[in-house]
Amino acid sequence: MHAQWSAHSRRPARGTKASTPRRSATARTRAETRTSGPDPRPPAPAAAAAQTTLTTLSVWRQLYERDFPLYKQPLEVGCFSLDSRRRFFNDARQLRYYVAPERKIPNFDLRAGYRERFVRRDDGVKEGLDHILRWILANRAKLQAPDAAAASPPDCALGVDFVTWRGHLTKLLTTPYETREGWLLAATRLRGTLYVSEVETDAARAERLARTERHSEMMYWGYKFEQYTCAAEPRGRPDEGGVVNTNEAFCTVVRTRLANHRLLFSGEVDCRDADPRAPPGPACYLELKTSAEICTAKQRSNFHRFKLLKWWAQSFLPGVPRIVAGFRDNDGMVVSVETYQTSKISQLIKNEYNCWKPTVCMNFCSDFLSFVQSVATEDDPRVVYLFSWEPHKEVSYTVHRDTQYCFLPDWYLREMTHAQ
Ligand code: A3P
Ligand code: MG
């Protein structure tokens, strides 16, 4: 059975019409050649030599233990803000300034205000790439600067190969080590650029709808910590009694290159260094995190293995150099604060047995992007290639034409196809 067919039968397309990717009768795939079992093994050398276009991509870690791929220093090309009603602004009005806690044991109460002063974003509303697309339309001249145009082939209107959210790339980086949550990523090609947008899996949707009050409160804790450590003005103080509104966001937009893939992506940034002499973004940005306090060796090991992987991937991608972590007890009181240098995290975990490796994360991401490039060839926003991954399986894909998976909005297509 072909991998993409098994993906079909597991996920019967929600009333959509799916077509199979065309492939030659002699093409061999990793899925067809591997032995069955929970661990996706690499292909036998003879089969690998006979491969043409892959129909699946293996997630087996050892395949990606090669030299670290080229990853260019991310360059901030712009930013945008979303206000308390999720309205887009092509500026930095929501950028906040870091205020270090005054005490070594801050005793911030992360539960404060959960009932009275919390406005939660409706995460049932799927925005796709819309905010990034708005930013692109507002900044096309910048993207098509003479040097950028010269470097890009004439059939690539934006001069980048991929447009996506940082969060989607974070998921790709951590995939070789992920054992719980799968993902679905939709890709569509328009004028040479691939747009990659997440589709909520059935499991993620079920989890979101079944979220307990305790879980919901713990999600608030992370935002409350941001409120204790951020000010709206460079010399301002945190407004501890204010409303926590998770609609508000400041997002950086960066350009970079992973191997031969030119990337444009955006990610939310928690705050910047309040010192006006700090370098420009992303070097002045800080990521804020909370985590349970570490009391045992086992907890430390789990923190290194699982949490630091996610923290590293999220901040490494946009070039955010520092992560400020608030460690809290079970009652939501912050008992200590520690700063991690993103570039030193891989050193911190070196003593963990069989731990994650940055090179595996980056090589997997690079190979996945190559896989998408080779599969998503039709330059037509009505065609969506849906890449699907579940733990212990390989990445597979299906092709969908004129279905509800189409995600580039008409207002974007109109601008991109008419106004040159
Ligand atoms: P923590 O990371 O401190 O838990 P981010 O750290 O990415 O800026 O996100 C801010 C906060 O949003 C998180 O703070 C957490 O409270 C909440 N959050 C983000 N993604 C989440 C997820 N997948 N599940 C639960 N909470 C999440
Ligand atoms: Mg954060």
Overall geometry comes to globular
Number of helices: 13
Strand arrangement within the widest β-sheet reads 1-19-18-8-9-7-13-12-2-3
Q: What value does the average pLDDT take?
A: 88
The largest sheet is: 10 strands, mixed
* Total E-strand runs: 19
- Which ligands accompany this protein? adenosine-3'-5'-diphosphate, magnesium ion
CA(first)-CA(last) distance: 45 Å
- Class by SSE composition: alpha+beta
Which residues form runs of ≥5 with pLDDT under 50? 1-51
Proportion in β-strands: 15-25%
Q: Supply Rg.
A: 22 Å
Q: Helix fraction?
A: 25-40%
Region (Disordered): 1-50
Main location: nucleus
GO molecular function: metal ion binding; mRNA 5'-diphosphatase activity; nuclease activity; nucleotide binding; RNA binding
Domain RAI1-like: 72-412
